[in-house]
């Protein structure tokens, strides 16, 4: 198996989900006591979040890139950034780390295209919903039109992510807010909704019955792409 480097801690709540899903995926495919060959670096999210708020994206990208270079030195052969938001600086991370990146937008775009989705709603941090980097990746690479909620709903989604989910807090009222926002996106013409923050599936179960449109969990899709990559045979 090939060794994956996991840039985590943003937040550690969702990084724990990545770790579980990747190990479960390898065990399911290989059987027995097999588990995922990983190199994990968990950064201090408070430092990264402060750089996000300050708009210091170049500095944040260089921080993750240096961390990724450490994973390369420890034996990682590729990188996974365990957060949607920090894919905003994916190019910097690749350049600074010297490793190829399994992009969360590719895992998501491939699943959306395979399902025949043409227009998808996007939920995530304010940065992910408003800065356009993930929407462009999905549109240019996979032909997916991306829509986001109106500003008050974007603010509420962002608040729930940072004030609750990243801190291990889950409220029924927040679950209801997500259900309302997902319903509104469906009514606006979206034929799917992307859970475009790696913490959202801690609150919203994509497999639960009753959603008006299919929900695509970027965390699960990204972890599955990592399992596929780790189990590919290396070529000389």
TrEMBL record:
It holds the Pfam family Asp_Glu_race. Transmembrane segments: none annotated. Keywords: Isomerase. One of its GO terms (molecular function) is amino-acid racemase activity. Belongs to the aspartate/glutamate racemases family. This is Aspartate/glutamate racemase family protein. It comes from Ideonella aquatica.
């Amino acid at each position: 198996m090939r060794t994956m480097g996991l840039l985590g801690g943003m937040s550690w709540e969702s990084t724990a989900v990545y770790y579980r899903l990747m190990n479960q995926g390898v065990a399911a495919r290989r059987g027995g006591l097999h588990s995922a060959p990983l190199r994990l670096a968990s950064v201090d999210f408070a430092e990264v979040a402060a750089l996000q708020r300050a708009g210091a994206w170049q500095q944040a990208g260089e921080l993750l890139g240096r961390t990724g270079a450490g994973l390369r030195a420890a034996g990682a052969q590729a990188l996974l950034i365990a957060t949607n938001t920090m894919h905003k600086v994916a190019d910097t991370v690749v350049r600074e780390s010297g490793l190829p990146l399994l992009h969360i937008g590719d895992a998501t775009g491939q699943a959306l295209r395979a399902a025949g989705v043409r227009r998808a709603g996007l939920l995530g941090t304010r940065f992910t919903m408003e800065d356009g980097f993930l929407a462009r990746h999905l549109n240019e690479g996979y032909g997916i039109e991306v829509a986001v909620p109106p500003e008050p709903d974007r603010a509420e989604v962002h608040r729930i992510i940072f004030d609750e989910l990243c801190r291990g807090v889950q409220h029924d009222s927040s679950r209801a807010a997500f259900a309302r926002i997902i319903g509104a996106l469906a009514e606006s013409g979206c034929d799917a909704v992307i859970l475009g923050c790696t913490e959202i599936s801690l609150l919203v179960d994509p497999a639960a019955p009753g959603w008006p449109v299919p929900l695509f969990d970027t965390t699960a899709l990204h972890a599955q792409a990592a399992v596929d990559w780790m189990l590919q045979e290396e070529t000389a």
